[in-house]
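Response to reviewer comment R2.3. The reviewers asked that we include at least one raw input/output pair. We reproduce the pair for Glutamyl-tRNA(Gln) amidotransferase subunit D here without editing.
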Amino acid sequence: MNPGDRVRVERADRTYEGVLLPSSTDDQLVVKLEGGYNVGVDREEAAVSVLAEDVYEIDGTDSTGADDAGSEIEFDDDLPTVSLISTGGTIASTVDYRTGAVTAQFDAEDVLRAVPDLAGRANYRGRVVANILSENMEPPIWQDLAEAVREEIEAGADGVVVMHGTDTMQYSASALSFMLETPVPVVFTGSQRSADRPSSDNVMNAVSAVEAAKSDCAEVLVCMHASESDDVCALHRGTRVRKNHTSRRDAFETVGAKPLGEVDYETEAVEFRREYRERGAVDLAIEPALESGVELLKFTPGMDPAFLDVVEGAAGLVIEGTGLGHVHTDLIPRLEELIDGGTTVVMTSQCLEGRVCDRVYDTGRDLLEAGVIEGGDTLPGTATVKLMWALENADDVEEAMETSLAGEIQERSVPWE
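Raw output as returned:
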């Protein structure tokens, strides 16, 4: 037996079936199970049967399982062109058969090889902006990404799909929503489960994202599973989406409304339920400058006012206040000092629904008098990214933060179900 063979391993009263992986020691067998997890078994205590040879060719390939030859992409003049931009993340990951771990090493062309269902839907161009896990995303990479999207659209792309890790996708989608005026769809997608797992959502999400990139909605969107079933992908506006579950395939939700649209995976139909900016409605433009010195702070009961010393000198601060946008009254004098010192402070709410209104209670009125800006129903993460952008690009930062620039503030906060 060799690494890459599908094997059955029996030990005591347990039986494991999966792909044999290279092991760092001769004393252990390492098997990748169908569910995506690895198990190590003492070699001497195990009985091994080879079920199929060379299920995965490990020798002679790189760590992604791909050979050195580049993928060949044929162009069809009758098809639209979709640019695939990779930043890393689970959708661009596969198992590293040297270690058994999941690694983010696919580039955009590898995605085409890994998702054959993309073939025939569009002409594809691929480029890599970053190859990172999404927790390592930073504002400078947002700027690189926005520039890459601009270049792809200028080069004739009819739509752009950004492959991105799910943990910080909502921040990146918000960033591009403010930085770009786009005449074509820009669709973020990812996967909660890697391609080597039977429950992976990478194929459906990638296919649906490409269909959305061919649609008439020229906005920044997030395309992910709408339910645990493989039936529909939801299309969320980039500034109103939030990851609300750590591992479910339908982790992403539009806060305060239904998703902007959806893609039926079986019929490939793309439908929108609310108004959106149409393809070609604006000229391509980019304002990529960002002020990175902006922090997001969640208020908690009993918080020491000295905690705000950490943001002394920061250009901006977004607070997740309670309810309508409140903090303990003892923090207000310190916030006023920060504002007097040049820090722009924006109030949002920890509540998932509804908007900030600091005119109802005395605490809120004191915050407004101190110079705190109301963020409406802007999501705290979105407000943080927006403040980074507004500090560099807006003539009046307060007016910009209180105005919906990319659909981040809804006209009314009402139950939608």
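Residues 81-286 form a domain with the Rossmann fold fold (CATH 3.40.50.1170). The first strand starts at residue 6 and ends at 11. Further pairs are available on request from the corresponding author.
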